[in-house]
Amino acid sequence: MPSPKLTLCRAGDGSRYVSASGQGRVNWVPYTVANDYNRSLAEVYGGRDGLATHAPGAANIPHRPAAEVPGAGYYVQVADPCHQASPAEACGFLSEQLKGVDVRLRQDRKDGNAQSERAGLLDQLRGCD
Predict the structure, then answer these.
(1) CA 80, CA 92: separation in Å to the nearest integer?
(2) How many CB atoms lie within 10 A of CB 119?
(3) N or C: which end of the chain has fewer CB within 10 A?
(4) CA-to-CA distance for 58 and 90, rounded, in angstroms?
(5) Taking the complete model, does pTM exceed 0.85, yes or no?
(6) What H or E segment, with its residue span, contains residue 27?
(7) In whole angstroms, what is the distance from residue 93 CA to residue 96 CA?
(8) Of 108, 129, 35, 47, whose CA–CA distance to 76 is shortest?
(9) Strand-pair partners of 6
(10) Rounded CA separation 28/59 (Å)
C-alpha cells in the first residue's frame, strides 16, 4: 500500500491538522498581529502554551487601547500555513493521532466516533513502514 499523502496545516495555537482541500483555515486577526514580521499566528501567540491558549484571566496579556495603536481596529484574513507532508511526517502525524484516539477509547470504550476514527487511522497507517 502506498504511503499516506497528507496536507498538514498549523493552526494559530500551534496544533496541526489535516486539510482535505489543501488550504488552511482562515481566521480574522488584528492587522497589527498579521503584520508581525511574517511570523505565523502560532509564533506570534507563543505556540501551544502561548497567550492564545490560556483561559481568560489565566495569563497576563499585554494590551493597549486601540486609539494608541494605529491600525489596531483593522482585521485581516489570515490562512493557516499548510504543506504537503513527507511520508515520514505523515506517518508520524497519523501515529500521534492514533495515540490520542486510543486514550479517548480507554476513557470511554463505547465512543463510536473514536472507534470509527481509529479504524480510519489504522487504514491510513498501512502505508507506513
Answers:
(1) 20
(2) 10
(3) C
(4) 34
(5) no
(6) strand 26-30
(7) 5
(8) 35
(9) none
(10) 22
Please work out, in degrees rounded to the nearest 5, the angle formed at the alpha carbon of residue 9 by the alpha carbons of 5 and 13: 150
Cell of 21: 482541500
Q: Which residues contact 50 (CB under 8 A, 6 or more apart)?
A: 13, 14, 42
Selected residue with higher pLDDT from 42 and 58: 42
Residues 77-113: b if buried by 16+ CB within 10 A, e if exposed: ebebebeebeeeebbebbeebbeebeeeeeeeeeeee
- How large is the average pLDDT for residues 25-32? 77
Q: Which is it for strands 26-30 and 75-79: parallel, antiparallel or unpaired? A: antiparallel
Closest by Cα among 13, 47, 17, 16 to 27: 13
Amino acid at 78: V
% of the chain exceeding 90 in pLDDT = 39
